[in-house]
Amino acid sequence: MGRTASGQVQQPGHNGSRNAFLHGDRPLSERYAYCPYPIQGLSYPPSLRDVCPPARMLISHNREKLINAAIYFADNTQHCGKIKLIKLLYLLDFEHYRQTGIPVTGLEYRAMKMGPVPMALFEEWDALGPDFAEAIALVPEQVIHYVRETVQPKRDFDERHFSRRELRLMADLAARFRLDYSQPMINVTHAERGPWDAIWDNGRGNLERIPYSLAIRDDDAHAQAIRESAAEHEAIRQAQMH
Predict the structure, then answer these.
(1) Any idea what the Cα angle at residue 127 is, between residues 125 and 131, rounded to 5°?
(2) 180 touches 79 (CB < 8 A)
(3) Tens digits of per-residue pLDDT, 198-234?
(4) Strand partners, 137
(5) In contact, 224 and 231? CB cutoff 8 Å
(6) Could you give the angle at the alpha carbon of 150 between the alpha carbons of 119 and 85, nearest 5°?
């Protein structure tokens, strides 16, 4: 139990404590998703006008986070080709969603035999967009019986796009899988009763979307608060798209 700035006692479970837990460590640019006045036709209070951008800015922000996450993992792990990068992004997005109700990159993942696949990135890989091509190079590298396109950064990582929580998660994943090839990571993302496994269902769920909501377990601390935050974020995102 704590007190507000005005000295009033704040009860456990108050929205203020929930919001502080979920995104108190987020930079201002990351709080766009929580703006309560993004719907067209509603008035913006003066204090929120500069922190409630239109949906296109949210999309642009997610794109910058995706590109910089790729730079970070390429810089801080070895053997980082397409499969390893995809696995790292999946683990980053789903773990961050489990903790906060929001993914880092906003990518949509589909269930395939090889594991969870962000289809938009998978389809872009052979012809990277100009912004991605300016940030990374795909360098062919012979690896035993196949050629891996190793991701090599062309510019520095920009941490300004990320919250402290996101930076910690990226650092943890990079340290854990720094020396691994893609196969050990496939074993992790294929974990029994995990989000991919629940949708893949021995092939019956091929190419089905993997809902981020599967990342949250019933026995997780703050599970209900995180689900509520996720629902609010999704409602706002949908409203911004119309």
Answers:
(1) 90
(2) yes
(3) 999 999 999 999 999 999 999 998 999 999 999 998 8
(4) 152
(5) no
(6) 40
